[in-house]
């Protein structure tokens, strides 16, 4: 909402002094000031204490792309807050940027939800249940240790055939899984730097893997 308010302020300042809309907008601004005084005070306070020189330089310039400058400034602030945040570390390990993922919703709603839970680290894998003190975290299908995202996606022998199909599907798009498990998990869950077409291919292949393993069938995530 603050972004909208600043865009309105910029638009008002960019009109010529004799423009008919300037007087109309001024009247509307006076009405808004009367109705939303606390909000406008908050906007001015935030802008005065957190102002961006690039935005201030083009404020009221009709020829300048103020909206793009403001969007860039706010994106940089959100990115800094994202990188320095204390929560969501499992998602941040996969999604390093606050920019929207166009490939995140590929597949059916159920599959998309399961993949999202894997990204968030909030699922029915034993490592997650161990954090909730409901399990010891060990994989129930093998003796390979803790069943976390990397174990499920890359290591557990229970899903060897499904993983082979996943790898083949990726190679059709000339995509090889990195040797490092952290990088491989990041790629599978959508965080690698790939072109949009390859990102869609990765998400489709991952959706098939999640469906074929049936790992989450019969759990709350299945619904």
Characterize the structure shown.
There is one protein chain. This protein is an all-alpha fold. It has 2 domains: 2-84, no CATH class; 109-222, no CATH class. It is built from 12 helices and no strands. It is elongated, with a radius of gyration of 24 Å. The model has no long low-confidence stretch (mean pLDDT 80).
Quick overview of this protein structure:
The chain is an all-alpha fold.
Q: Beta-strand percentage? A: under 5%
Helix-strand category: mainly alpha
Largest sheet: none
Q: What is the arithmetic mean of pLDDT?
A: 80
Along the chain, the helix and strand elements come as: HHHHHHHHHHHH
Describe the structure using short key phrases.
223 residues, mainly alpha, 60% helix
């Amino acid at each position: 909402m603050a972004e909208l308010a600043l865009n309105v302020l910029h638009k008002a300042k960019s009109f010529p002094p004799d423009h008919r809309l300037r007087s109309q907008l001024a009247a509307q601004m006076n009405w808004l000031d009367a109705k939303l005084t606390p909000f406008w005070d908050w906007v001015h306070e935030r802008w005065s204490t957190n102002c961006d020189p690039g935005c201030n330089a083009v404020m009221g310039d009709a020829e300048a792309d103020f909206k793009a400058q403001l969007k860039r400034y706010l994106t940089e602030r959100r990115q800094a807050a994202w990188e320095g945040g204390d929560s969501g570390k499992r998602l941040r390990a996969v999604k390093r940027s606050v920019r929207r993922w166009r490939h995140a919703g590929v597949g059916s709603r159920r599959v998309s939800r399961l993949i999202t839970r894997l990204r968030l680290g909030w699922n029915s894998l034993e490592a997650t249940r161990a954090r909730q003190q409901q399990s010891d975290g060990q994989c129930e299908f093998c003796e390979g240790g803790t069943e976390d995202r990397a174990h499920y996606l890359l290591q557990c022998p229970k899903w060897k055939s499904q993983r082979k199909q996943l790898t083949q599907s990726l190679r059709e798009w000339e995509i090889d899984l990195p040797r490092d498990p952290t990088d491989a998990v990041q790629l599978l869950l959508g965080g690698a730097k790939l072109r949009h077409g390859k990102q869609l291919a990765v998400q489709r292949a991952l959706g098939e893997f999640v469906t074929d393993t049936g790992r989450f069938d019969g759990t709350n995530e299945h619904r």
